[in-house]
Design goal:
Blueprint: E1 15-17, E2 21-23, E3 30-33, E4 37-39, E5 64-69, E6 75-79, E7 84-88, E8 94-99, E9 111-116, E10 122-126, E11 131-135, E12 141-146, E13 152-157, E14 163-169, E15 179-190, E16 202-216, E17 219-227, E18 234-239, E19 242-247, E20 252-256, E21 262-268, H1 278-288
Parallel strand pairs: 3-21
Antiparallel strand pairs: 1-4, 2-3, 5-6, 6-7, 7-8, 9-10, 10-11, 11-12, 13-14, 14-15, 15-16, 16-17, 18-19, 19-20, 20-21
């Protein structure tokens, strides 16, 4: 019998380059950026509160999957418990809702991801119904697209109301050792304008993880999977019609177009990546396994 351990994740602070970028002599597609940098901060007081502990059904929230702001100042919230999309005005007052529990068009069984597009549409991925759903700015169902994805999914908006679909494909390694290491992969696709197959145009290494395995008589009887400290993972973002990829702990961001071609990259020249040694990794895994 095993019990799960609570592992605290490490948070990284991101900075935006405020100085001019210099073109690297070795590769004209790479822009090397140098200090000074402007740090982003979050104001200690919220400018708006939406929701109530004891209120009307429309403002009671549970399992919030996503919250976004529209270009006209309104707000949209995806509630995972009711499986509804709810729109609020710029002051936080409820306007209307869409969705609900079910398998029909515009209904959801399990909302895994959502994103607002630059045109104020909202796109949602339902992992159980295996489809993408678009709602317009006024809550009208726009279209659905079949999407047979098996891993963890994230959505990133494109400028033309389509979305990047980022699927992290989980890899579990129980390859005969007590401590086994593996790295997931991520596949990036563009959701089409109408129903059709989602073909990955870009694949990259994903998250590093470790799997501890207990064997009895040569057969695995218990496993425990865990994150690694300062482990590598690929972070994704959207900038216009390009997808931005950054490996956790590395001082470079790469930008790819919809054909999967590298367009340019930005690199911080004042930082150097710290190497995670095998001994550090093994020591962490051994101390984290709970029996």
């Amino acid at each position: 019998m095993t019990r799960l351990c609570l592992l605290l994740p490490f948070a990284l602070m991101a900075c935006e380059a405020s100085g001019p970028a210099n073109e690297a002599d070795s590769d004209p597609s790479v822009l090397e950026v140098s200090p000074p940098y402007a740090e982003w901060t979050v104001h200690p007081s919220p400018f708006l509160r939406i929701g109530a502990v004891d209120g009307t059904v429309e403002v009671e929230l549970s399992q919030v999957v996503y919250a976004g702001r529209l270009t006209d100042g309104r707000h949209v919230i995806v509630d995972g418990a009711s499986k509804e999309v709810r729109w609020f005005d710029d002051a936080g007052a409820f306007q209307f809702k869409a969705g609900g529990d079910g398998e029909g068009p515009g209904e959801f069984s399990r909302i895994n991801a959502a994103v607002v597009t630059p045109q104020d549409s909202i796109v949602l991925y339902d992992g159980r119904n295996q489809r993408l759903t678009w709602f317009g700015p006024r809550g009208t169902l726009a279209r659905t697209v079949r999407a047979e994805l098996q891993g963890s999914v994230a959505l990133l908006p494109l400028a033309d109301s389509r979305v990047w679909v980022v699927e992290e494909r989980i890899v579990t390694n129980i390859g005969g050792s007590e401590y086994n290491y593996a790295r997931d992969s991520i596949a990036i696709m563009v959701a089409p304008d109408s129903s059709g197959r989602l073909d990955p145009f870009l694949e990259r290494p994903g998250r590093e993880a470790a799997t501890w395995v207990r064997y009895v008589g040569g057969a695995p009887t218990a496993t425990q999977q865990m994150e690694l400290p300062f482990a590598r993972s690929t972070l994704t973002g959207a900038v216009g019609d390009h997808v931005a990829l950054m490996e956790n702990g590395q001082p470079e961001v790469a930008f790819f177009d919809q054909a999967g071609a590298l367009r340019h990259a930005a690199r911080r020249t004042d930082l150097s990546a710290q190497e995670l040694t095998s001994s550090m990794r093994d020591q962490y895994v051994r101390s984290s396994v709970c029996l």
